[in-house]
């Protein structure tokens, strides 16, 4: 969390959203939909931009048939994500119970749609969450996954509901940049030119990886002498003319080979090794 966001939290203000809503009208699915009329409790109700329509799953809990639940949205491709806002269902006079039902959930960002191999960006607890919940969650991903469980033999913190836990999400807003290759809260600053696939951290412009031959947080530094390639992980083999180092991207000798050496990388002795 950056310092401004942190200070806003301290004084009880929440985020000022200037990012794009990446989840709006995308495809959502959930583990088990509560039986109801057509679309009534559908997973897509959380991404329809209408906070009066909500999802609902069959209940989980220690005396219920299921003990875990998931909901996920497929954003359509990999995006740079900044934050996630969830509006949980409230019922007048049951706010505390509702918070106890949602308590303990996890949020993942994934490129494949599976929780395995994805990045955990938030784990709730032990305090009960607010029903209008926001967290920063910076990363690159195509799917955002909500997960919760109520397992036998686990002691849950005070206030957690442990049976008949219905999951009801009225809206899930995924804030991020809908253009690629940019960062910043208005999604209008180009990422550094040597970032791999033009992808950088949405807040601080650090590249996720570098193009071949470059290194550093913003990939603005050439590989150190004697090294080249992706992650600067390859060692120059060649005997370059004038004792120079190889090209930091290709590994080739730019001014040709030293006397007595040949081959594309000047790695072969002319008279045998
Ligand atoms: C939830 O909180 C956000 C951020 O403060 C606010 O913009 C939004 O209006 C709230 N939503 C509801 C339904 O109260
Ligand atoms: C990206 O977000 C902007 C601002 O919210 C919107 O005007 C634009 O239509 C969006 N583009 C796509 C491809 O979703
Ligand atoms: C939101 O959904 C409710 C229930 O389906 C519907 O009555 C209402 O017209 C919708 N609001 C908007 C703005 O679409
Ligand atoms: C930018 O943020 C990422 C993820 O939080 C972090 O790993 C990286 O070190 C940060 N870069 C800088 C320059 O602060
Ligand atoms: C470069 O480094 C990244 C991150 O450590 C790693 O995932 C990737 O496999 C490396 N690529 C090569 C070719 O070494």
Automatic annotation (TrEMBL):
Pfam families: F5_F8_type_C_2. GO terms for molecular function: scavenger receptor activity. SUPFAM superfamilies: Galactose-binding domain-like. InterPro entries: Galactose-bd-like_sf (IPR008979), MEGF10/SREC1/2-like (IPR042635). Keywords: EGF-like domain, Signal. Residues 1-18 form the signal peptide. This is Scavenger receptor class F member 2. It comes from Magallana gigas (Pacific oyster). The lineage of its organism: Eukaryota, Metazoa, Spiralia, Lophotrochozoa, Mollusca.
């Amino acid at each position: 969390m950056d310092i401004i966001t942190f200070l806003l939290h301290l004084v009880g203000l929440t985020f000022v959203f200037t990012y794009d809503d990446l989840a709006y009208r995308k495809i959502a699915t959930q583990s088990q939909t509560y039986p109801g009329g057509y679309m009534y409790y559908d997973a897509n109700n959380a991404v329809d931009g209408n906070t009066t329509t909500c999802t609902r799953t069959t209940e989980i809990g220690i005396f219920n048939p299921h003990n875990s639940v998931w909901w996920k949205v497929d954003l359509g491709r990999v995006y740079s994500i900044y934050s996630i806002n969830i509006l949980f269902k409230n019922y007048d006079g049951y706010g505390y119970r509702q918070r106890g039902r949602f308590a303990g959930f996890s949020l993942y960002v994934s490129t494949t749609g599976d929780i395995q191999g994805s990045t955990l960006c938030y784990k709730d607890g032990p305090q009960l969450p607010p029903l209008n919940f926001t967290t920063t969650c910076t990363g690159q991903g195509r799917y955002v996954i909500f997960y919760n469980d109520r397992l036998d033999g686990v002691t849950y913190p005070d206030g957690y509901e442990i049976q008949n836990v219905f999951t009801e999400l009225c809206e899930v807003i995924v804030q991020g940049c809908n253009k690629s290759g940019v960062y910043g809260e208005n999604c209008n600053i180009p990422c550094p030119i040597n970032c791999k696939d033009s992808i950088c951290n949405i807040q601080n412009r650090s590249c996720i990886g570098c193009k071949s031959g470059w290194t550093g947080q913003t990939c603005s530094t050439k590989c150190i002498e004697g090294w080249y390639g992706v992650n600067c992980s390859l060692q120059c083999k060649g005997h370059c003319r004038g004792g120079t180092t190889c090209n930091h991207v290709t590994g080739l000798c730019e001014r040709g080979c030293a006397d007595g050496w040949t081959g594309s990388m000047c790695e072969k002795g002319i008279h045998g090794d």
